[in-house]
Design a protein that fits this description.
GO biological process, one term: methylation
Number of helices: 10
Organism: Streptomyces luteolifulvus
Strand order of the largest sheet: 3-2-1-4-5-9-6
InterPro entries: SAM-dependent_MTases_sf (IPR029063)
Low-confidence stretches: 1-14
CATH superfamily of one domain: Vaccinia Virus protein VP39
Keywords: Methyltransferase, Transferase
Distance between the termini: 26 Å
Mean pLDDT: 88
GO molecular function: methyltransferase activity
Number of strands: 9
CATH architecture of one domain: 3-Layer(aba) Sandwich
CATH class of one domain: Alpha Beta
Helix content: 25-40%
Largest sheet: 7 strands, mixed
Strand content: 15-25%
């Protein structure tokens, strides 16, 4: 919420900031993506993901969650319609090649909508995940609902669908930092600025997509960085500050972001921000 951690969210039309998207994708893969590993592990353990699992990962990013599922023996398919750069990194991680035979031959990665992840000969998926956390940007629940509407017909009856969100702002230290994005993006109000997570966000999305809620959980996912510069790169890689950059400029965002991170910097220079994320398990009908 890569996405949402989270993930790339495009800026308003006509005002996209000039960024090196390959560098952003690398920063996501090398710095930020691992922050949600406790969430992935908790979900996979609870649902007993293993050799019998056929997983469809929506918004798979650079593929870390898929890689963890594949290491448990699952057959994985990832859909990443927003960032071809992240998808290219996922291919490096997951697809077999001439010198690395550890990857599963049945792994699939799709750079389009969920419907491209199946055909008449593809068995139904037994698990769908949408780990990109909502509760970040205005309108992010609508985007997730649209993706679910396209993906759930590819899953079997009663298959679990996992949705994720940021926890309550008072339980997420990073919320204070993300308020910088909201403040700076104020001139572009309603077009991609940060907003606090709602208590029932996940249930509303699930029910709107015809899914039946069937359990939930909370997971501690602290954000830890080697230093302030690493933290800035990691947070910028989420795309959550793009609207702020469009409304001001890169230098202003970097400056205020570093100031906001100061309270979370330790004596040794590292940055540590405790956070709680929430997941919902829903079932297809």
């Amino acid at each position: 919420m890569t996405p949402t951690l989270v993930r790339h969210h495009p800026s308003p039309a006509g005002s996209a900031p000039r960024v090196d998207r390959w560098a952003r994708a690398r920063d996501w893969s090398e710095i930020q993506e691992r922050m949600l590993v406790p969430l992935y592990e908790a979900v996979y353990e609870r649902l007993e993901v293993g050799p019998g699992t056929r997983l469809l990962g929506l918004g798979c990013g650079s593929g870390l969650a898929l890689l963890m599922a594949a290491s448990r023996g699952a057959s994985v398919t990832g859909v990443e319609p927003c960032s071809p750069e992240r998808l290219a990194l996922a291919r490096e991680r997951l697809l077999p090649d001439a010198w690395d035979k550890r990857a599963r031959a049945d792994t699939r990665l799709v750079g389009g909508p969920p419907r491209d992840a199946a055909d008449a000969e593809t068995p139904a998926y037994t698990l769908v995940t949408a780990f990109d956390p909502i509760g970040c940007l205005a309108g992010d629940t609508e985007g997730l609902g649209e993706m679910l509407d396209a993906a759930t017909p590819l899953a079997g009856h009663g298959a679990p669908v996992v949705l994720a969100s940021w926890g309550p702002p008072e339980r997420c230290a990073t919320a204070a930092v993300l308020r910088v994005a909201k403040k700076l993006a104020e001139p572009l109000r309603g077009t991609g600025s940060w907003r606090p997570a709602g208590r029932d966000d996940l249930e509303e999305v699930a029910e709107g997509s015809g899914l039946k809620p069937d359990g939930s959980g909370r997971v501690a996912c602290p954000f830890g960085y080697a230093g302030v510069d690493s933290a800035v790169r990691g947070l910028l890689s989420t795309g959550l500050f793009d609207a702020a950059i469009s409304a001001t400029d890169q230098a202003q965002v970097d400056k205020e972001l570093k100031e906001a991170l100061h309270p979370y910097q330790r004596r040794d220079g590292t940055v540590w921000m405790p956070n709680v994320f929430r997941y919902l398990i829903a079932r297809t009908r």
